[in-house]
């Protein structure tokens, strides 16, 4: 069967059907466009496509859940109903973390004795943040071999951790995964140079059937009445858990900027907000100067 015939027979819209086909065939959208008229597909691929199509139509699943994978920072990750689907705007969090690491290494080169950098990804989900940071940091850590990075990743969901561990193994990363309610696991170090957190930040009222995120795990979305339950709990811990000049980067809802700004002042954290690609406040960067 030719790919073009499969796509034309699909009851899904063209964009979604082509995304599924591209994922199953492991080819880019450009390659799919160039080859779809002549590319023959196997019965096995055709069967997987039909299964994904049925899951989307009959069960309302996002296509990433239907095919069991998603892309983040140029890498493929396993996803299922136990984890949030990675978003492209979260890739900016990785970029900001890498920028911090570059600066941290420069400071260490100036004579700071501790040449070990300790990082944690809180609420890791798929593990996409931790894995991406590990892989990207290796590119410049090779040139700075006198420094070491110790990377931790936590989640309160054992099912999510199972997915994250699989993704870590696929991408051959060395990450310590622990089940933890934020930073509560006693096996974690007392101090971190860098804290990353994409915690549940949606107000409960936003999680309704009409919202496109409704099929994703509520534990990864629901941040309580104002969306700040877990974020505020983490901020309370940061003065004692961030190393001097350490940084925490939190993904937030733009509506929470004012309240988070006021809350961080209480804990004497220097706070800078950064926008996403749509020019909306998306990240709170909290620095411990003490």
Tell me the number of strands. 9
What's the structural domain tally? Answer: 2
Provide the low-confidence segments as ranges: none
General form: globular
CATH third-tier fold name of the largest domain = Rossmann fold
For the record, the CATH class of the largest domain is: Alpha Beta
Across the major sheet, the strand order is: 5-4-3-6-7-9-8
Most strands sheet: 7 strands, mixed
Q: Nearest-angstrom radius of gyration? A: 21 Å
Account of the protein in words:
- By secondary structure, the chain is an alpha/beta fold.
- It has two domains: 3-67, Helicase, Ruva Protein, domain 3 (Orthogonal Bundle), CATH 1.10.8; 88-287, Vaccinia Virus protein VP39 (Rossmann fold, 3-Layer(aba) Sandwich).
- The chain is built from ten helices and nine strands.
- A hairpin with a 2-residue loop joins strand 1 and strand 2.
- Helix 2 packs across helix 4 and helix 6 (91-109) runs parallel beside helix 7.
- The radius of gyration is 21 Å and the shape is globular.
- The relative contact order is 0.11.
């Amino acid at each position: 069967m030719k790919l073009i015939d499969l796509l034309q027979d699909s009851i899904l819209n063209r964009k979604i059907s082509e995304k599924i086909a591209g994922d199953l065939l492991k080819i880019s959208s450009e390659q799919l466009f160039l080859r779809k008229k002549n590319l023959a597909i196997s019965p096995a691929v055709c069967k997987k496509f039909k299964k994904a199509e049925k899951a989307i139509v009959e069960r309302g699943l996002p296509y990433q859940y239907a095919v069991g994978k998603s892309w983040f920072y140029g890498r493929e990750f396993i996803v299922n109903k136990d984890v949030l689907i990675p978003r492209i705007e979260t890739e900016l969090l990785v970029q900001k973390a890498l920028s911090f690491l570059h600066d941290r290494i420069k400071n260490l080169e100036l004579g700071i004795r501790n040449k070990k950098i300790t990082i944690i990804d809180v609420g890791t989900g798929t593990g996409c943040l931790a894995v991406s940071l590990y892989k990207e940091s290796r590119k410049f850590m090779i040139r700075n071999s006198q420094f070491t990075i110790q990377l931790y990743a936590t989640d309160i969901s054992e099912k999510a951790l199972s997915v994250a561990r699989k993704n870590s193994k696929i991408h051959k990363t060395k990450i310590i995964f622990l089940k933890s309610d934020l930073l509560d696991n006693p096996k974690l170090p007392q101090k971190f140079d860098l804290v990353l957190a994409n915690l549940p930040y949606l107000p409960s009222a936003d999680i309704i059937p009409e919202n496109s995120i409704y099929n994703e795990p509520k534990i990864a979305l629901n941040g309580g009445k104002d969306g700040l339950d877990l974020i505020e709990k983490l901020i309370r811990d940061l003065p004692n858990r961030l190393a001097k000049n350490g940084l925490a980067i939190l993904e937030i809802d733009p509506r929470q900027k004012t309240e988070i700004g006021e809350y961080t002042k209480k804990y004497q954290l220097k706070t800078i907000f950064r926008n996403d690609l749509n020019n909306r406040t998306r990240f709170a960067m909290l620095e411990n100067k003490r």
